[in-house]
Amino acid sequence: MLVLDRVTLRFGGLVALDEVSFTVTPGSLHALIGPNGAGKSSCFNVISGLYRPTSGAVRLGEQNLLELRPHRLAGLGIGRAFQNTALSTHSTVLDNVLLGRHTLTRGGFIACSLRWTRREEKRHAARAREICDFLGIGAAVDQPLGSLPYGVTKKVDIARALAVEPNLLLLDEPAAGLNTEETAELAATIGQIRTDLGIAILLVEHDMDLVMGIADQVTVLDFGRVIADGTPGDVQTDPDVIKAYLGATT
Ligand SMILES: Nc1ncnc2c1ncn2[C@@H]1O[C@H](COP(=O)(O)OP(=O)(O)OP(=O)(O)O)[C@@H](O)[C@H]1O
Description:
The protein is of the alpha/beta class.
């Protein structure tokens, strides 16, 4: 269970998050949505440990995440995929996914990238291939990442996050930059991760339509505050949500 408890984040005089509270229950697909500048990325960065909130708490089970350094999250069973993928374009898909495995086994790949035995290497590579197969990018595992379409690289980023064998997967606007067809495919894949792997997912997304078909629970932010929290059906008809989204497009 991931719990945000009255999280406030200020940048000078600007309040990016204002007493934000919500709970992601185990195994659920929880979407965090809101118009531009609502505070979604700020919230993702607080949970990932990149920003320290001004006040409030973030807990995973009994663990206070704010006491941990970001690279320790993998050890707690949290996988993260970022909006701007931090992947190596010269390396193959497999090598990129294996970086996630290194984080899992030794808490940081730089200190230990040479320390896997041959047998370990084989085992991790087999698991990385399995994850890629599951995400539908199995045919591309030996290709250099730079030669592949953007939609595939997005999935590689998710594969790398899954390679830490997480209980909770954090996805920051995974559909950003994808076309309609790629977005629909990605939405189906994300739904499948939740259903087939039983992993809880926090999906930070600008596009309301993407999350409505797949999310169990939706939290809506506007100007740093939670304006609605409920099932997709609930929030879709909420007058404050409609106003926030309409206001953003006019
Ligand atoms: N590092 C920062 N320094 C100062 N202000 C920031 C910083 N990061 C975000 N903000 C501000 O905090 C507010 C929330 O921004 P945030 O990026 O979290 O929103 P968002 O919902 O993710 O928006 P988008 O959908 O456009 O990515 C905005 O007013 C933004 O300008």
